[in-house]
């Protein structure tokens, strides 16, 4: 493929003419394709249909005899805490299992910190002159939305292939006591697909922070969502924090949203005993007990982490061809042209596409006009502002394979049109 950046003006104009012709062809097809939704397909949800028949009419007691139909057991039933303990590699006592959304648990952890403060701190974050968070970007828009909702200032930090740029993180965290935390999606990061290196994990755990109550919100949403058989190792953040003398620094989150049923799964938080006690004290004012029947349902379906791993291999066999389709089209249409770069994730839910600087909004707009809906440009950055206007998040799990192929061809044509127009000035 010709590197478009090496073409002369006449060749670029000819290329643009041909691209516009292709674009018009797609635009006249009346497409209505949606590539925005990072959610499981119906076929993936079908893998967990058995849940709808569990635990059954006569099976409603926990190992220790508690009737799950009734109130109580605020921190989650023992077997669900044990299962998430395996998942998060923590003792069951260091785990709270809640309702269906880890996002809610993260939201509530932030609200508790704002209203009451956290162990190691000087009281409520909201009473301090300012509260700010480090936001590795591109990142997960809903993390940023929580900050925005509560007026927590966001400082974007670059993502590289090992995780957040730790030179930036260390400099910022050490220099400003109003910086209270960092959002992290450590495995198959949304949207870059990056898994944090051991060095990154150890630097996060050990770094000097001006705030004594700095928190790492460790959102391990894609912990077991591998697309290959040889997942990269991920160091254990809480153990690294303990070893570095900061046992309370990390709060771990996970859920079964993309393992079982996204709308009816389980979510969990793992942390130091002190953080768990603190959370429980406040949680006691919020809830008498979570949906324990759903917890029972899940532990009947998954007796151990190995069961979850086997289940995730079935997910991978449905999801992998969709990621392959995206990557094949990008390689075929954009490979060697020097107008785009994209991730080749080994797991998770997204492909991250970078157009040429300054082109993402135009690409998303062009695609929309041709009937292909993409996540809004900028959505992966704090305040919706991508300083280089280049990042586009592609979510391949939900649509059919055929739709993905057409949608990605349209996107590839739009990326080239925007790129060539930029080159032409
Ligand atoms: N965290 C990340 C990184 C996500 O990508 C998502 C969903 O896309 C969530 C959390 C939502 O998790 P839950 O369904 O457990 O609230």
Features of the shown structure:
425 residues; alpha/beta; eight-stranded mixed beta sheet; three-stranded antiparallel beta sheet; 13 strands; binds pyridoxal-5'-phosphate
Task: Explain how this protein is built.
This protein is of the alpha/beta class and 425 residues long. It is 40% helix and 13% strand. The protein is built from 13 helices and 13 strands. The protein has helices at 9-27, 42-46, 78-88, 102-116, 141-149, 166-175, 198-206, 237-243, 273-283, 292-301, 305-334, 360-369, 401-424; strands at residues 33-34, 95-97, 132-137, 153-160, 163-164, 179-184, 215-219, 250-255, 267-270, 340-342, 351-355, 372-373, 391-394. Strands 2-9-8-7-6-3-4-5 form an eight-stranded mixed beta sheet, with helices on both faces. Strand 10 (340-342) and strand 11 (351-355) form a beta hairpin. Helix 7 crosses helix 8, helix 11 packs across helix 13 and helix 12 packs across helix 13 (401-424). The mean pLDDT is 97. Pyridoxal-5'-phosphate is lined by residues 38, 101-103, 140, 185, 190, 219, 221, 255, 257, 267. Pyridoxal-5'-phosphate (PLP) binds next to helix 4.
